Amino acid sequence: MLGYLRPHIQTIFPGTKAIDYDGEPGWYWVEFTFQPSPILFSEVAEASLRSEFLGDSLLILTDPLNGGTDRKHVFTIKARRHGLEYFVYCNAKGRLSHINAHYQARGLKNALEYVSDGIRPFVSGWSLRFNVPIYVFRIRVLEEKSNVVRNIIYHQLYSPVRVSQKDFNRVYRLPEDDRIISFYHDALNATCPKYQFLCYYKAIELAYGLRNKKASESKEKGEEFIRPREIFPDIDTVKCHLNKDIQAQLLGKKFTSIRDDILRPLRNKIAHGLFEESCDEIASDEEVYPYLPVAKYIAEQLIISEIGLHVLPTNESIQGNSKTRR
Predict the structure, then answer these.
(1) Which helix (H) or strand (E) holds 104?
(2) Where are the domains of the chain?
């Protein structure tokens, strides 16, 4: 799972096991526990979540939960890549709480990597489809034979989104879908505005790459391919999220022009400042904030156009995680 803050890893060894023990071939349970944004959590609430690990995400299932008990198994999903089943749970409030899977692995690390690889498309897809971050608070890997447990705690703590069970399952048609959605998902989850912008920009570039691939395939087949003419709209529901100083650069302009003339230079400035020690010009957070809603909106529209997924059509759907500075 990409884009999270530095985790705390703790391995619990019942009995006598070497400190570097990584498990043996056999059956493992891997469990992901979700939670809301830590920014909204008090220290008391976080301590309670840590002690009980009930899970409390921002996705609320609207279908009735029989009995309404904690850790209620509500449905099962099957990963397309390897057919592994994932069991989805909700807590008493109907919020998405846990996902776990039972897998025969070579060890603790192998079980975590395999199960994570299978679950990533689903979590990323939900995050995009409902336009909401899905934070992982804890990943727990249990070796059944020895009862060795490895806990990975993420120190990451938006309004809830109500969804139905039937909305969760989706089959992604192309390998490129997963990459685009994953970058969009990472952008939603990012707490660093520069990293958030880079993820939105990468999603935009990948979406244009997917469009070019479709155009080439159509040309080879002798078919006509019409590229959409996408214009940044001059409407109040969009303008209300934009810094007034940059509106003239955006409204009525083509997406490709905005990408080439505005977003790409900012992307390069951020990247050079992060990765080149000798760089004299470094983009500040204040410089990045106004363009987060711009990059997010263009990324959303391209995803809808190229993949066919529809995010929530609300005013909030074009806001970046970080507050736009006016």
Answers:
(1) strand 96-105
(2) 7-168, 175-318
